[in-house]
Amino acid sequence: MNGDGILYSIGELARRTGLTVKAIRFYSDRGLVTPADRTSAGYRRYGPEAVARLALVRTLRELGLGLDAIRRVTDQELTLGEVAAEHAAALDVQIRILRLRRAVLTVTAEREPTFEEMERMHQLATLSEVERRRLVDEFLDAIFEGGHGGPGRAAVRHSMTPELPGSPTDEQVAAWVELAELSMDPGFRTGMRSLVEEHVAHRPDGAATPPRPDVVAVTRELVEAAVSSGMSPDSPQADAVVAALTARCALAFGRPDDARLRGWLVHRLESAKDPRRDRYVNLLAVINGWPALDPLTPVIDWSVKAIRARTAR
Length: 313
Hints:
Elements: E1 8-9, H1 10-17, H2 21-29, E2 37-38, E3 44-46, H3 49-62, H4 67-74, H5 80-111, H6 115-125, H7 129-144, H8 150-159, H9 170-183, H10 186-201, H11 215-229, H12 238-253, H13 259-272, H14 275-288, H15 297-311
Antiparallel strand pairs: 1-3, 2-3
């Protein structure tokens, strides 16, 4: 002890703080804690304030802060609140990156992809928001022939747009990767473009005319309950369902409810049947946080079989 109070050797300071002598010497060499004095032999001696200072350094290091940030706190260039906010923001970025990596690895474990496929999945998962938007717009432009084409088509386009949130879950990231891969499939694009073109071709002309309902949407609305209940498309109970479906479409499209309408309806429904379309819709629901829809394929299969059974009578 001297006139200024108690002084600790580096060994005593290590026992009081739980840090190693090597760690204290390291922090001392970098100016995070400074000796109050030295012995005649050159050994460092630290004052009581070094205990509290090293406790702060240890806590901040355990929280992951770098030495520069810690020095700014101990030198009072930044408050603890300011440095905590900076570090929390940095951790948010790291957490997002780790989530993306885990999602890619999860998909990889499930699919057993090639190295090239894994690299592509990683690239898709780590796209920036601007890059994701560009990829989605390019896919939708290919389907909608580059334009929005009026409010009706714009609404359909919007309903097909994935919006990955700023802090996505692992499931949303995995869904985004799969949806992005699907959107780049030339065959899927061709099928979706044909579906959109056929839908638009049967919409009424003129801005004052209300848009016609989508045949697939109408079919889902009227037939889904029958499919869910296990009703056979050949059963007498299905007569009323088919009658309601053809009557609604005849009214919406201004056509007689006859065999030609039923043939046209079968064609429209079969052209919309693509398991990849169901998958796209399901992935879209996951990404956007929407309720999942039941698969469309069973509804189409039931409707086509039911209509054909009654056309053949």
